[in-house]
Amino acid sequence: MAVATGSSTGTYNLKIQKHGELMKLISHVVTSDDPELKHGKPEPDIFLLTASRFQSIPASSDKVLVFEDAPNGVAAASAARMNVVMVPDTRTDKSLCSKADKVLESLVEFDPVQWGFPEFASCKQ
Predict the structure, then answer these.
(1) pTM attached to this predicted model
(2) Is the pLDDT of residue 91 over 60?
(3) How many CB atoms sit inside 10 A of residue 89's CB?
(4) Which of the residues 70, 78, 87, 113 has an alpha carbon 20 to 30 A from that of 3?
(5) Contact 45, 39 (CB under 8 A)
(6) Using CB atoms within 10 A of its CB, is residue 51 exposed (0-12), middle (13-18) or buried (19+)?
């Protein structure tokens, strides 16, 4: 997993301060101020750059699954020919979500099997 964010490095670091355990699962991050990034979202550059930095580069863009919350990010992922699941802010106009392959109200609704991943292990309390 990686992060491709329209936030600058400083803003991104502020946003993740309380998510250290989750961030340990992230391979790498590309921010809007990355020196190799030429164009921000809605151009596909940030997603293509992020994919190129995996140790095992995906065989093709359609082997990448992007999670997005904003229409510009969905447009960028679509332009990169990547699959995109959108979890929009509740205030986002639903007509702006049409380019996503799947729109969810919450990440809790995500079904990994639909995308070729193993199903989630059940949580035991």
Answers:
(1) 0.89
(2) yes
(3) 7
(4) 113
(5) yes
(6) buried
What residues contact 125, with CB distance under 8 A and at least 6 apart? Answer: none
DSSP 2: E
The 10s digit of each residue's pLDDT in 36-84 is 999 999 999 999 999 999 999 888 888 899 999 999 999 999 999 999 9
**For residues 122 and 113, which has the higher predicted lDDT (pLDDT)?**
113
Give the type of residue at 61: S
Give the residue carrying structure tokens 């095992």.
56
Q: How many angstroms separate the CA atoms of 97 and 56, rounded?
A: 30
Does residue 42 have a cis peptide bond before it, meaning omega lies within 30 degrees of 0? yes
